[in-house]
Amino acid sequence: MYDLILSGATVIDPAQGINEVREVAIAQGKIAAVEPRIEGPARERIDLSGLILTSGWIDIHAHIYPGATTWGIQADALCLATGVTTIVDAGSAGWANFIGFRDYIAARARTRMLAFVHISGIGLTYGPLGEMEDLRYADPERTAFVIHHWGEVCVGVKVRQGAFQVGPNGVEPLRLAVKAAELAGVPIMVHIGAGVPLPRILELLRSGDIVTHCYQGNGDGILGEKGEVLEQVRQARDRGVVFDLGHGGGSFRYEVAKQALAQGFASDAISTDWHAHSLEDPVFSLPETGSKLLNLGVELEEIVRQTTSAPAAAIGRSGELGSLQVGRVADLAALVVREGEFSFVDVHGQREQGRLRIDPVMTMRAGKVYWPDDLRAELEEARQRARQIRALTGKNFAALGWKPET
Question: Angle 181-270-351 (CA atoms, 0-180°, nearest 5)?
């Protein structure tokens, strides 16, 4: 007796080479069968005809530590309404405040929440100030201990390497992050931005380390002065460095993506970099972010790979996530590819029209089904909290109902 059979959908599982109509059976929160036709009895059947069914999507770059940082969003319902079953916080917490993230955010969520631990002990507590302008905040040994001790949640080390974040310290924060990562045996995720030359960063990275914001257009990115993909970038990929999209509020430029794709350089993983200042505009969801690449010519199966098996591999969880293999936890996403006229925007306000949009329909996390409409109240609460954080960070006190005395 199965608990549930999902029928009628086109199952896309790049890890197993599946792209065809199949039925998926669920029993006791795990995938029990994936076959063209499943005859066994089930307590419930859901017809997903016309939809795409994949393993649950994995977002490896977001900021989901609300109440403790000026970036954090309430991500649980947002994920479950958009096909995301695993989300990774990208360095909101350092060693000094990680336990709060584990105990009060990750442990209480329905979505699987993991984390890169920031090499800065204070993490990203206060966004307007650079967390690595003072190297005294960095502690490789404590960072490595936290990752080792709470390995069920921690997947790596985060460091941001733009001039705004490191001041005059150049790549020294990255060197300290490498030390922590080597002590813990995990990869690094490094934010790239203007002010620190990318070749200097790449020469310090190891196979499996992750460069996020690969399509950013703020300077010191993957393209040279003539728009060519830097040779150092190609060499880094050849030796196993992973390139993540990391959209966010300032790190996805259409022109960079177009030039890179035209030269055969696609991202390895797609992530939202969801935070209080990117939620709603310009990042609406992981499927919407994937839609931007879909309309630039990236195949749907590749979009699915970059949101399932590829990010699972990048965070060292290929053995448990990113595929619909029998016996694995039943994390799934049902989506529809709509046809019409859609508008998409990058972080510089450039709009592109597209014919296709990937929309979430249903999410399954550990065998439990979630429909977006059932999460409506939680979604509005999360968006409202993000608006409050944006207003407070921007000193827009009027939006918060307060007029300070002058």
Answer: 135
Distance (Å, whole) CA 209 – CA 157: 9
pLDDT surpasses 90 at 371: yes
DSSP type of residue 83: T
Total length of the chain? 406
Say if residues 245 and 220 touch (Cβ distance below 8 Å). no
- Closest C-alpha among 333, 322, 380, 328 to residue 77: 380
Residue 349 burial (C-beta neighbours within 10 Å; 0-12, 13-18, 19+): exposed
State the pTM of this model: 0.98
Backbone angles phi, psi at 199, to 5 degrees: -55, -35
What is the residue-averaged pLDDT of the chain?
Answer: 97
Domain with 230, as residue range(s), is 57-324
**What is the per-residue burial (b if ≥16 Cβ within 10 Å, else e) of 168-199?**
ebbbebbebbbbbbebbebbbbbbbbebbbbe
- Identify whether the C-beta of residue 26 lies closer than 8 Å to the C-beta of residue 46: no
Give the pLDDT score at 404: 87
- Give the number of domains in the chain: 1
Q: Is residue 178 part of a domain?
A: yes
**With 80 as the cut, is the pLDDT of residue 112 above it?**
yes
Q: Within a domain: residue 336? A: no
User: For 264-284, what is each residue's pLDDT tens digit?
Assistant: 999 999 999 999 999 989 999
